[in-house]
């Protein structure tokens, strides 16, 4: 397949970046070489001048001249060896730098690939092209692809097993999840992203737990934990215990313990005690444990700040 104008332009830009990097490396190498040569020449002149002063004005002292020659030769050999080693290492560093610059200029990042893949799969879900599964939820019908559902959710994978009705009919009926929530769940299965608004996060958490989409469940826990209020703290705590959300359970218990009187005065507290007595026993136990830990920390803190008698 022939490359398009945009692709050729990108390739020309990449090769241009590579040539620019190589030119910069070569220029830097030559400048360093010139600087080091000048430094060596200046060092030799200085050594010769000092040697002449040490030797004095008597040219007949051949023994001292030979010693000075040997000394200059030794200095020159040492400086030359050090210069060669330095230039070798410098050239390797410049070569690596030029290679990495070319590679980074010509290779797209993994983030770009992931965003492109998510966008393409999201468009596939929205268009419904080649969809082979129909999901009915209330009065709404959603179309999806069997391969995506099976790969992303163990529960959907079990439904699509050979001995299940859903596998043969390609039809799934959902009765306990709202259309808006299920739609966002499918979006996450395709793109790994979802609109995690606080008003939707709690219901989406329930759906993610049902279909064992653990990454989405953890994200929903985080969003709900940051949106705890006096009015919804008890409901969040009960739901967290019901769906084994350890992080949200701890956050809810700490929030209730910090606002216990206000929370107990809400209608939500009375409703939760009436409808979920066993879970409310667990909530009360966790709140009491948090309150006890808080009192112990406060007592220990006051003991450390108390002045000695």
What does this structure look like?
This protein is mainly alpha-helical and 309 residues long. 77% of the residues lie in helices and 5% in strands. The protein has a domain at 5-55 and 62-107. The protein has helices at 5-55, 62-106, 110-127, 146-152, 154-159, 165-169, 179-191, 198-210, 214-226, 233-242, 246-258, 260-264, 267-275, 277-305, and strands spanning 133-137, 140-144, 171-174. A hairpin with a 2-residue loop joins strand 1 and strand 2. The longest helix has 51 residues, at 5-55.
What share of residues is helical? over 70%
In one word, what is the shape?
flat
Instruction: Give a count of the beta strands, DSSP E runs of length 2 or more.
Output: 3
Instruction: Note poorly predicted spans.
Output: 1-12
- Order of neighbouring strands in the sheet with most strands: 2-1-3
Blueprint (SSEs and pairs):
Elements: H1 5-55, H2 62-106, H3 110-127, E1 133-137, E2 140-144, H4 146-152, H5 154-159, H6 165-169, E3 171-174, H7 179-191, H8 198-210, H9 214-226, H10 233-242, H11 246-258, H12 260-264, H13 267-275, H14 277-305
Parallel strand pairs: 1-3
Antiparallel strand pairs: 1-2
Helix pairs in contact: 1-2, 3-7, 7-8, 8-9, 9-11, 10-11, 10-14, 11-14, 13-14
Entry summary:
The protein has 309 residues and is mainly alpha-helical. The chain has a domain at 5-55 and 62-107.
Structural descriptors:
309 residues, mainly alpha, three-stranded mixed β-sheet, 14 helices, 77% helix
């Amino acid at each position: 397949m022939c490359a398009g104008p945009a692709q050729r332009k990108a390739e020309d830009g990449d090769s241009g970046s590579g040539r620019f990097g190589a030119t910069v490396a070569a220029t830097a190498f030559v400048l360093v070489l010139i600087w080091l040569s000048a430094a060596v020449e200046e060092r030799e002149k200085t050594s010769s001048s000092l040697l002449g002063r040490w030797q004095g004005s008597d040219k007949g002292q051949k023994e001292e001249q030979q010693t000075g020659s040997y000394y200059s030769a030794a200095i020159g050999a040492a400086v030359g060896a050090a210069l060669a080693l330095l230039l070798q290492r410098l050239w390797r560093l410049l070569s690596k730098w030029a290679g990495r610059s070319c590679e980074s200029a010509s290779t797209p990042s993994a983030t770009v690939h992931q965003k492109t893949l998510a966008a393409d799969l999201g468009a596939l879900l929205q268009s419904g092209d080649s969809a082979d599964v129909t999901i009915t939820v209330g009065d709404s019908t959603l179309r999806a692809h069997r391969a995506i559902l099976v790969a992303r959710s163990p529960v959907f994978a079990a439904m699509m097993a050979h001995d299940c009705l859903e596998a043969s009919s390609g039809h799934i009926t959902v009765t306990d999840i709202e259309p808006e929530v299920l739609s966002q769940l499918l979006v996450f299965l395709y793109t790994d992203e979802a609109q995690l608004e606080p008003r939707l996060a709690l219901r989406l958490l329930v759906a993610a737990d049902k279909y064992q989409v653990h990454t989405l469940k953890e994200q929903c826990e985080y969003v709900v934990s940051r949106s705890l209020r006096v009015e919804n703290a008890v409901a969040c705590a009960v739901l967290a215990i019901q769906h084994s959300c350890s992080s949200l359970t701890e956050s809810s218990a700490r929030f209730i313990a910090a606002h216990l009187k206000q929370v107990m005065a809400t209608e939500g507290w009375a409703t939760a005690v009436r409808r979920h007595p066993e879970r409310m026993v667990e909530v009360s136990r966790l709140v009491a444990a948090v309150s006890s830990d808080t009192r112990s920390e406060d007592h220990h803190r006051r003991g450390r700040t108390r002045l000695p008698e």
